[in-house]
Design brief:
Blueprint: H1 2-34, H2 36-40, H3 45-49, H4 55-66, E1 73-74, E2 84-88, E3 98-102, E4 111-115, E5 121-125, E6 135-140, E7 143-146
Antiparallel strand pairs: 1-2, 2-3, 3-4, 4-5, 5-6, 6-7
The protein binds calcium ion (CA).
Residues 102-104, 106, 108, 110, 129 line the site of calcium ion (CA).
Length: 147
Amino acid sequence: MERTRARIVNGVVGIIGSFTVFSMTGLIVLCYESNQSHIFSFNSPAYADSSNLRTVDREVLDLIRRRKADRDKVKDALPGRTYKVNLYRDQGFNRWNRLKIDLDKDNRWDEKWTIKDNFVIIRQVSSRDDEVYDQRFTLAGDQWQRQ
Ligand SMILES: [Ca+2]
């Protein structure tokens, strides 16, 4: 009788244990879907595999379309965000021609974008947040295409 009870208790603990793991997995997946920059702090290379536009992408794209390039550099061009964006207008350009994004504000750039003519955008990603840009994408419609 005691042995049976112990087995049942162990079984229940096992089920609860499994459920917790499952819930935690769900939570991570939920984080991934709702706030992709959050998962990036785990240095997940999978993050950079995402081809869909993130909130940060949409905000940055809107920014560079909307904001007039009236100076050579704008630091923290989208203040109050969880990420930091610097815009650059290099010599010979009358528009923003590149930008950098620090997704987790740890003072290491996670991404650098080059904005070419006709709004062709090349996005280079440091998947380990070490400023080594090991991944490269171009914008095609509202998707990032890996190069
Ligand atoms: Ca960073």
